[in-house]
Specification:
- The structure is a homodimer.
- The first copy, chain A, has about 170 residues and is α+β, with helices and mostly antiparallel strands.
- At the A-B interface, strand 5, strand 6 and strand 7 of A face strand 5, strand 6 and strand 7 of B.
């Protein structure tokens, strides 16, 4: 079985919604409205300025989309040399290295596109697994936003800004 | 002469463009495309999720819009209790306290709207006057983004993230 990362196609909408829907509904890792509709969620994830990829497990005659990420310029104009990404993994594929594979792909792709750095603007502080994963890829915490996120179970938690040069 | 801060009206478009146009063209303080059209610039400044104000000097039978700012929630969902603002002052009114008046107004307005903190995501590091002004209002530098901004004269400079509770 191989995990292939490829550009998302229109036919992936159901699979993408199957991943981002539960993540948005849970409301624990992304600052998005928990009741966001499928249409609004897909419009956001597939915004005109987002380049969207899916991670698909292929082999043995079956395939399944297990993750998706977007890439965009984090700022316009004088800030457009810094990339920003958002990654989501299917709940049933958690812990299988899907996010790791997508992050590795995104760093290569960002370099290929000419970005010179990558920044995550809002990593929820209680999402320790994600923070550890980004750190393993060389991202550093360069900012801490006190009580910036209302976690549905934990209440107000910090968010962090993470960054690395490419 | 009094500096009045009030919600922007459609009739303020020319005045707003007269302020944000030169600032965008200069490209030294905002991460926006320097060649942004008037239409795109006004669409950005007056985005549906932006609440826009103007600072108008009134008295002696004349009035002039000398500054404008927007307020929005910096994030959606679990991050929607943190406000974000952008402020621009007319070049000819620089140093007259327009930004200070707008910032004071925005802090009051953000409290009235129920925001619990305010964050500036991308203050260009070479914009020392702005940083000092925000610090005088209690904002702290909570993050530093290395070489995040390509300044047209200075080359790559840092940007900082600034934050204060309300």
């Amino acid at each position: 079985m191989t995990l292939l990362v490829r550009p998302a196609q229109a036919r992936d909408d159901d699979a993408i919604w199957g991943i981002i829907g539960p993540t948005i509904r849970a409301g624990e890792t992304y600052a998005l409205p928990r009741d966001m509709s499928r249409t609004d969620a897909l419009s956001y994830w597939k915004s005109p300025d987002h380049e969207v990829f899916v991670a698909e497990r292929v082999g043995e005659g079956v395939s399944a989309v297990l993750g998706t990420y977007y890439m965009r310029a984090n700022q316009q104009g004088g800030g457009s040399h810094v990339a920003n990404c958002g990654y989501m993994t299917a709940q049933e594929a958690s812990g299988q290295g899907v996010a790791r594979t997508m992050c590795a792909h995104s760093l290569e792709h960002a370099r290929a596109r000419g970005f010179r750095a990558m920044q995550f603007n809002f990593v929820v502080g209680s999402n320790e697994r994600a923070i550890a994963l980004w750190q393993s890829f060389g991202f550093a915490i360069v900012g801490r936003l006190a009580e910036a996120f209302e976690h549905p179970r934990l209440g107000l938690v910090d968010a962090v800004v993470m960054h690395r040069m490419l």
